[in-house]
Design goal:
Blueprint lengths: L2 H14 L4 E4 L4 H16 L9 E6 L6 H21 L3 E6 L7 H8 L11 H21 L2 E4 L8 H11 L8 E2 L6 E4 L7 H10 L8 H10 L7 H7 L23 H8 L7 H13 L17 E2 L2 E2 L6 H21 L12 H14 L6 H10 L16 H10 L4 H17 L8 H11 L4 H15 L19 H5 L3
Helix pairs in contact: 1-2, 2-7, 4-13, 12-14, 15-16, 16-17
Bound molecules: iron/sulfur cluster.
The site of iron/sulfur cluster has 14 residues, from helix 5.
């Protein structure tokens, strides 16, 4: 690596036009080097040549590892203060996913299974969308934007291939087209730097906004299983969760074993307060394949068979309630056990809890309305947002009664609860707009049980010619012809 050459490149591009720059800063080593180099170049320019604003964006997914999130938050505050004092045109932005996209709203509210490689629903929602929305706004205001990233070809063979592919499409030197956004260009000043170059620079050049890069080094070291030196470690360890980031979300189940959070806990007694987070993350990881915790139907009620068994669907009502309770209990416990700086750490925000309640009651028709009760039991205070939702007139008592009347048949209870809710809320069962919802409610839950549903799905697949007779196992219960409800559902 040649630092002067890299800085020259940054200087030339900055001075070449008036297109605003957006620097992506995760708080990790590569984005810190990149921002630090840009900062130094701007600092060295005469004031009159600092003609355009540089936006520094950093995304808080809401489930960041606490130490990493604190590092990023303090860093942004320091940048704002120092840039203000020195008259540097940096503007910092902490970005957040929309509430509807938040990790907990999807996992606990909608019941999405904890992320896996094959079903990684989180990266786009939690990280990509907030950044893209910001870049789109800047692009819309100025016609174009340049996104400055700390991506390096040496990160992985895959990364190298992708970067080289976009390089072929360059129409200006050093600017690759942004793969997902029009009129936006990507500049990667350290694209050819090796891993060791990054640490060498960080540990030899003081951080210009007043952080100590040795703290970042220690964060990486403590997040490795045997406190290995990060300079050596990352040459062999790849991070398959979110690629660029050495530290993913504390909830990440895409990695088989969470290395960094559990390593931080194991490596430093001061981090022991985060042990419950590791345990909760392990529970999430175990829930991925646990059939007792997940529905046998997909989100839309369909049954998709794989090797004769239904693919796992969303988390059941009781699992979602358990997760919310565990999370709120953990939040309460942290207020006692965490170091003072983390006592008020928010594991789940009030806005997320309100949206989860809305989804449970309005979308899932769970009018026993469990959120206020779980809140009161775990926080010891009455739920303060009762008026968010129009009351149906029914509650936990009626839910228990319905359960009793349905003889513990959960599918039948679910169907009746949904139909009651649709009737109560919509003022007339058979008004046109309700018919689809009524049909959907019956389609979802007319089975006697999972076995019955599987038999029905096999019969359906057989009918559609997607499986042979051999796929129907002998011990499957006899399949009845289509039931009256189904026959009527064409309306
Ligand atoms: S770190 Fe893991 S949980 Fe977080 S967005 Fe990436 S894949 Fe999803």
């Amino acid at each position: 690596m040649d630092i002067d050459q890299t800085k020259d490149r940054i200087r030339q591009l900055y001075l070449a036009d008036t297109i605003p720059w957006v620097v992506g800063w995760s708080g990790g080593k590569d984005s810190t080097v990149t921002l630090q180099l840009v900062w130094e170049v701007l600092d060295e320019l005469p004031r009159e040549q600092r003609h355009k604003t540089i936006h520094v964006i950093s995304t808080d997914t809401g489930v960041e590892q606490p130490l990493v999130a604190a590092w990023a938050e303090h860093g942004l505050k320091q940048m704002t203060a120092v840039a203000g004092d020195k008259g540097l045109p940096f503007k910092t932005h902490r970005l957040h996913p929309e509430i509807k996209d938040s990790f907990w709203v999807n996992l606990i509210g909608r019941g999405y299974g904890a992320p896996q490689r094959a079903f990684r629903w989180c990266t786009n929602r939690e990280k990509v969308r907030p950044a893209n929305t910001f870049i789109q706004t800047v692009t819309a205001q100025h016609g174009e934007s340049i996104v400055v990233l700390g991506t390096r070809k040496a990160e992985s063979a895959n990364r190298k291939r992708t970067m080289e592919r976009y390089e072929q499409k360059r129409i200006r030197e050093w600017l690759s087209p942004n793969g997902s956004l029009g009129n936006s260009w990507v500049f990667s000043p350290i694209e050819d730097w090796e891993h060791e170059d990054v640490w060498e620079y960080l540990l030899s050049v003081p951080n210009p906004w007043g952080r100590d890069n040795r703290d970042l080094f220690n964060l990486y070291r403590d997040g490795s299983p045997d406190q290995e030196c990060p300079v050596v470690l990352e040459v062999t360890v790849k991070t398959p969760s979110c690629g660029q980031s050495r530290f993913g979300c504390w909830t990440c189940t895409v990695v088989t074993t969470d290395r960094s959070l559990s390593a931080m806990v194991a490596n430093d007694p001061e981090n022991a307060w985060m042990a419950p987070l590791v345990a909760f993350r392990d529970t999430l990881a175990a829930s991925v394949h646990d059939r007792t915790m997940r529905d046998f139907r997909r989100q839309d009620g369909q049954i998709k068979l794989y090797n004769g068994r239904p693919n796992l669907g969303p988390y059941t009502k009781s699992t979602r309630e358990r997760f919310l309770r565990d999370l709120l209990e953990m939040q309460a416990a942290l207020r006692e056990s965490a170091p003072p700086a983390f006592r008020d750490w928010t594991l789940i925000s009030d806005d997320e809890i309100r949206e989860i309640r809305r989804i449970w009651v309005e979308d899932k028709h769970e009018w026993d309305d469990r959120v206020p009760a779980i809140w009161a039991e775990t926080r010891g205070t009455p739920y303060p947002y009762m008026n968010d939702i129009r009351p149906t007139g029914f509650g936990a008592e009626e839910w228990a009664l319905l359960d009793e009347v349905c003889g513990g048949d959960q599918l039948f209870r679910e169907m009746q609860a949904t139909l009651l809710d649709l009737t109560m809320n919509r003022n007339g069962l058979f008004r046109g707009t309700n018919l689809d919802a009524v049909a959907q409610a019956i389609r979802r839950s007319f089975y006697r049980n999972e076995e019955d549903a599987v038999a029905f799905a096999k019969q359906r697949e057989q009918f559609l010619g997607t499986i042979s007779d051999d796929d129907i196992v002998d011990d499957a219960p006899p399949v009845e012809p289509l039931r009256p409800q189904q026959l009527q559902l064409t309306f």
